Structures are given as structure tokens and as C-alpha cells.
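Example record

One chain of 182 residues, shown exactly as stored in the release files.
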Amino acid sequence: MGLDAPRADTIASHFGWFPLFAVAIFFAAAASDGAEEREHKSVALLAVDYSSGSAPSAPASAAEQARIAAIQAQFQDRLAESGRFTFVTVPPAVRARIDQDQAIGACGGCEITYGRELGGDVVAWINVQKVSSLILSVNVTVADVDTQRIKFVRSVDIRSDDKSWSRSLDYLIKHHLLETPI
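Predicted C-alpha cells for this chain:
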């Protein structure tokens, strides 16, 4: 005859029901915290910016502009497909103000102001940095509008072709962003 695990009524008789009750409350609270963090969120995608390390003000080439538009659409599609996110529309007048303002991510909190104005739960922005002629870095940032805290920031380095841009963004979204409580 082997050792049996302690039974709940035995534990309760030694310590009372309070420890079992406290443990149950703890796990219930932990489970509800995770559920709340994974609720549906509305996202205001403020910018997909491009900068070159050697010439920060140099415009993106036509091929790079097409890739930037493609990763913006891919980002929105993948997050919407997850069922956790919807995107708020950024009206042309607000888009014009964003484009004229300091760079998103370096504007001293303007992201939160825009997020409130647009009615988003979170704001997101993507920055593509050309590190060299072969390597680019894609940075994705998501901030909570109410708490004014960064909830997600990740970067992935890529080679400069269409497939690598798409695969790297998919990897970042699937293995990091969708795994992060926001």
C-alpha cells in the first residue's frame, strides 16, 4: 500500500478551511487578471515610419514605400484575425497633424493624446530603421492609452526583400505580440 496524498478534509481539519479558501481566491484572481488583459482592444495605429541610419531624412525608395504599406496592412490584418484587436480609423485631418508633429515615439507623449482623441484603448506605431544596405530593423511599440504605459515593444532585424519583411513581422506578431497581455 503506497502513500496517499493528503485529503482536503484532513488538511482542513489541521489548518481549517482558510488556507484552501485563500489558495482558491488567489488562483481565481490570477485567472481573471489574464482574462482581463486579453480582452478585445481597439488600436490606433499612428505611424509606420522609415528612417535610414546614414541619412535619417532621406526618403524611402519606391520599393521600400511599397514594403512599408504592405507591413502596415499585414500588421492590421494579423491583429484583426486574432480576434483580440480592431483598428480605429485615423481621419485625414488627424493623419496630417501626426505627419506634421514630431516623430511618433519621440514626441513626449503625443501618442497618448492622439490615442485619446481617436478613442483607442491602445496606440501602436512601427518604425523601420535602415541599419545598413543589407539590414533593416523593424520596431513595434504598443502603449496603453489609460495607463500611459508601454505594453509591448519588440524589434526584429531583417534582410531587405519582400519575403523577409513579411516573415519577420509575422514572427514578431505571432511569437511575441499575441503572446503578450496588452
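Notes: The CA atoms of residues 18 and 24 lie 10 Å apart.
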